[in-house]
Specification:
19% of the residues lie in helices and 25% in strands. It is an alpha/beta fold.
Length: 162
């Protein structure tokens, strides 16, 4: 569901939690061998998104899920003695964004998402000795002239013979 880097950086897909006082130990105790539930810690860590305003709110843009504010980020990081959260669940025009006073980073590595968004992709690196986040941005590469799902044709022909 996530990873902790150097005891200070938490990496997740989504974000933080509707429930207050969630600890890294509570996250580690979750049974991950299941379908993701429609609510709770596992759901939020997979699907929650940040907001600029304080507190927690329903995510109307997605029609469900949680939005969490800078105060929620600060509370979670302080409780768990962490410095930064890195997440990836949202397209960012420049491939990344730094929010919540520099303590929340969204990094999105798929440029021109779904061939429609026109966004850059990015990765984040932490280089010694500063261990501060550095970003590498990139643009989309041209698609090869291959029809969609062409790689499956050989498989489909083989399967038809069986």
């Amino acid at each position: 569901l996530g990873a902790i880097i150097e005891s200070k950086v938490m990496v997740v897909h989504g974000g933080l939690f509707e429930t207050k006082m969630v600890t890294v130990d509570a996250i580690q105790s979750i049974n991950r061998i299941c379908e993701p539930p429609s609510s709770g810690i596992m759901h939020d860590i997979l699907w929650a998104d940040p907001q600029s305003s304080q507190g927690r709110a329903f995510n109307h843009d997605r029609g469900g899920g949680l939005l969490f504010g800078p105060d929620v980020t600060k509370e979670f990081l302080n409780l768990n003695d962490l410095d930064i959260i890195i997440r990836s669940h949202q397209v960012r025009d420049e491939g990344f964004s730094v929010e919540h006073g520099g303590r929340l980073i969204t990094v999105f590595s798929a440029p021109n998402y779904c061939d429609t968004m026109g966004n850059k992709g990015a990765i984040v690196q932490f280089k010694a000795p500063s261990k501060k986040p550095e970003f590498l941005q990139f643009s989309v590469s041209p698609h090869p002239n291959v029809p969609p799902m062409a790689h499956m044709r050989t498989f489909q022909k083989l399967r038809a013979k069986l």
